Amino acid sequence: MTSLSRAALASLPAAVTRPGHDPAAIRTGVVHFGPGAFHRAHQTAYFDRVLDGDPRWGIAAVSLRSAGTVDALKAQDGLYTLAIIDREPATRIIAAHSDAIGPGEGTRLRTLLADPTVKLATSTVTEKGYCLAADGSLDFNHPDIVHDRARPGEPASVIGWIVSGLADRRAARAAPFAMLCCDNMTGNGGKLRAACVALAREWDAGLADWIAGEVAFPDSMVDSITPASDPAFLAKMAGELGVEDQAAVQRERFTQWVLQRFDLADGPDLAGAGVTLTNDVQGYEQAKLRILNGAHSSLAYIGLALGHETVFEAVSDPALGGFAGRLMHEDIAQSLKPVEGLDVQGYADAVFDRFRNPAIRHLLSQIAWDGSQKLPYRLLDTVRDKLAAGEDVARLAVPVAAWIAFLNRKAKAGETITDPLAEVLAGAASSGDPAAAVLALRQVFPAQLAEDARFRDAVTAAVTAFLDGREAELLAR
Ligand code: CS2
């Protein structure tokens, strides 16, 4: 079977929506780090619209570690399929990538980042890709940061590349690119700015001050449920399209991108493409991370303990679905500060409804990755706020305990834990007292939380209940 390409567009089935612009005419105006499924399903759908009216905003996809997606994009003229799997399915070809840069192509990356026609850089490298410590600041003990600190000319980390790209701009007296972080972290733009400034300060104090003063790092909230593209999905798409597409992605119809307003002269028309630009992104960010992602991680760890495979199965389980609903409404939404223009209880209902989409096979095991990086933003921030308000955290302790029980099962079975802290987590979770040992990991739990008896005792008792198979008792909360 041949692969998707510009030449193949004409022969695709009529029901497939073709790009609204000439894919051959787009030029690079954006450099993106981390062209994983979420990027290909979310950001590029917006830029594909921008490109319908303005060919300057093509995206160069950069993958520093793995070549797979970049090779597929190169082989397919930057084209791939976006399958909307929802109550009303649809298939659309995205033509937003003007270039692709893989491992070992650092010289090309450096040239691109220095080019003033590139006005934006964006990133989806997941939480761990930013090399941050537990307090959200740059981790100077991270091996990639140790490397980049000593060798500014040949960075290994995304942070190193951003700073070196900005350094080249400054040296050429050119305007910087704006840097848009699109990962699920609270205050994502601010955290990335602080990390870049911290590394720059090790290289050149003048550069650090210039980055702090001149470069925009707007915060953003990004949302669209995007299950991984597994071989079964790729085979199904090949059957539908009549050509192979190794970069195809699938997602629900719902998509949202809320971005803090920032200055960019003559930039892309993001608002026209459906991006919400606002001065108050933090409220949205927090609501999304705590309600949607918090519930996702809870469903993942508890659902896996009950033998479920997908989010749909987990929310369809009456005991777990009921528990998740109470957690979302009575614990999480209830504790959020009011957000202008957002009814948080209604938002929680809408999110729950998205989880009940039978067309989406979103694996709990995928969501369960990288718990050490996700739990702090998704669940522990809510726990901290509730404790400060003198409120009960018994229900919130259940998903935290479910994570510890999940680590315990994996460690005992000798199964891989996908997490940058895998080794430490496996050691702690398989010790004589898994709850105490995991709660003692300061990379995840700040002392203030772990040492608060209300939280510690609730987690400890719930871990015991999980290990004894008394889940039903916990889910009745
Ligand atoms: C999920 C997210 O994998 C995960 O951890 O919670 O990828 C989630 O699907 C997205 O943030 C939805 O926008």
Strand content: 5-15%
The largest β sheet comes out as:
5 strands, parallel
Report how far apart the termini are.
54 Å
CATH superfamily of the largest domain: NAD(P)-binding Rossmann-like Domain
Give the distinct bound molecules.
D-mannonic acid
Structural class: alpha/beta
Q: How would you write the strand order of the largest sheet?
A: 5-2-1-6-7
Number of domains: 2
What proportion of the residues is helical, as a percent range? Answer: 40-55%
Task: Count the E strands.
Answer: 11
What name is given to the CATH topology of the largest domain?
Rossmann fold
Q: Give start-end ranges of low-pLDDT stretches.
A: none
Mean pLDDT over the full residue set: 97
What is the CATH architecture assignment of the largest domain? Answer: 3-Layer(aba) Sandwich
**Number of helical segments?**
21
Please sum up the structure shown.
This protein has 477 residues and is an alpha/beta fold.
How is this structure best described in words?
- By secondary structure, the protein is α/β, with parallel strands linked by helices.
- It folds into two domains: 271 residues, NAD(P)-binding Rossmann-like Domain (Rossmann fold, 3-Layer(aba) Sandwich), CATH 3.40.50.720; 194 residues, Orthogonal Bundle (N-(1-d-carboxylethyl)-l-norvaline Dehydrogenase, domain 2).
- It is 49% helix and 10% strand.
- It has 21 helices and eleven strands.
- The strands form three sheets. Strands 5-2-1-6-7 form a five-stranded parallel β-sheet, with helices on both faces.
- Helix 7 packs antiparallel against helix 8 and helix 16 packs across helix 20.
- The chain is globular and about 60 Å long.
- The mean pLDDT is 97.
- D-mannonic acid (CS2) binds next to helix 10 and helix 14.
